[in-house]
Structure formats: structure tokens, C-alpha cells
Amino acid sequence: MSLIDDYWDIEDNVSALEAVRKSGRGQEFEIYRSLIAKGRVLLPYLSAEGIAFGPSRFLGYKDNTVAKHAKREHRNGRETTPRIRQVLAQEFGFTTWNTSDAVANDHFLRFCSALDVKPDDVARTFWITPEIGDWLADNSADARGATSENTERNKSLEDEVRGNMSLPETTRNSMIKARVGQGLFRRRVLQAYDKCLITGLAEHRLLVASHIKPWRDCRHDPKQCLNPNNALLLSPTWDALFDKGFVSFSDKGRLLLSERLQKKSRLALGVEDLRVALTEGQASYMSHHRLLHKFEDAL
């Protein structure tokens, strides 16, 4: 059995899984339940009943069925996982890695419970596609955070992204939500950093996922627009200071204060000598922010 060629092959395999799941009985259904229970690398997808999950070792083989899979002697996640990564990158325009995800895992356990399945006690990873990332973010208790206002200029830029037919609709929708720090972008940033870079505040409902290279300058490229490396997780005050160019950072994380920031405001912040731990990825984007807000002379 050969590996999948494209996203259509994944969708065909999902349809095969769904047909057996919906049957709810028979030998193939028992095989399906076993596949789910043993799943370690899983692709979540949306069904009529909500979120569902397909194992990587099933989805990665072309024209797969539950019956074929049960008879197959060679089933190797080391070949299906890289292939699924390639196919998802081709489909959505950026690389998606299978990673641990506490929220997705909670949904997986509820999915198993509905099937009356006891999943293996193993570490699991999940492929979070744009559609699933947005769904999980919208169904999360800390989904909102602060957002910026929706100006006519921003609406025009969103319409431009919406009309970019070179990208799948799900990717475009995620990119539009990313403008206000929501959806898949917010989930990725929260997972990457967990707390405010400066204050250490870890109350997710109060934090803002903010682009380093502004959304308007990376809106054509999902590899930048949805990338947590191109982001800081900040409390609202620090987000406003960074977004408006009153503060920036050197590549090594030294806080830079704009000359436009009033002296009393500098004193109120009380952080003249602050240094933060930027990742290498964040530092690679920070030069754009410094150049945009004329901080280069401050280095």
C-alpha cells in the first residue's frame, strides 16, 4: 500500500473512518475502536457531531479502509507521519507539526468515552490544522483575550486576504483571525509561551497574542502570519506599548524605550534595565519592529 499523495487522499481516508464510526457495530467497528484506542499521532477533524480523530498510521496510506488496514502487516508511523506533514504543508501553505496539545487531548478522551473505548496510556501528539485550531480556540474558556479595533483600513486588508485564492479558505480564515490575535495564531502563541514575556502573568484570558512583524506586513504569508516565532505574549499594557512602538527589544532581549515615551511614563514602568528571554525565532523578527519604529539608533 502506497503513501498518500495529497489532501484529497486524507479526506478519502477520513470518510472511510467516518463510515465505520457511524455504523456503530460489527467487526470493522471493533477494529476501528482499537485503532482509536492505540492512537499516538492523531489528526483531529470536524464531523457532524463535533470533533473526531483519525490515527496517523491509518490516514497516511492511500485508499485505506479499516478492513485493509487490519490485514496490513507493515504499518509504520515513521513513514506516515512525515508524509502527512508534507501533505498538510502543501494544502495549507505552512508547515504543521504534530505536537502535544492538552486541549486536543481532553477532546480526544471525551471522544474515546463516547465510543466506550479506553485509550492506551501513552503520550499523544496532534496535527492542528487551521480549521481545528480555530475550532479549539473558539471552544476554549480563555479564547478571547484583548483585541484591537476593526477599522475600515483593516477591513479592506482582511478582504484582500479573503480574496487570495492561492490559499485554502481555512488558512485564509485563520490569517484573518490572527489580525486580532485570535484563532489558530492565539493557540499557537499560548502554547509556545504560556505567560506574559515581561510580567510573568499566566492568566490566559488577560493576555494578548501580538505580532512582532505587524499583521499588515505579513498578511500574504501564512508561514509568518501564523508563526509563534513572529509573536510576543503580553499583558494588555505592554501589548499597547509594543504595538504602538513605545518599546521594542534588542536581539538579546534588552528593553528599548522610545524617546516619544514621556519621562513620567518611563518612571511609572520602572523597567529601565529590563532584559527578557527572546527565542532565536522571535529575535529574527524583532529587527523589523525596530526598523519600523526607528529604534535602530538605540542599539
UniProtKB/TrEMBL annotation:
Residue stretches of biased makeup (Basic and acidic residues): 150-162
Question: What range(s) does the HNH nuclease domain occupy?
Answer: 196-249
In residue numbers, the region (Disordered) covers: 139-162
**Pfam family for this entry, one:** HNH_2
Top-rank taxon:
Bacteria
- Name of protein: HNH nuclease domain-containing protein
What taxonomic ancestry is recorded?
Answer: Bacteria, Pseudomonadati, Pseudomonadota, Alphaproteobacteria, Rhodobacterales
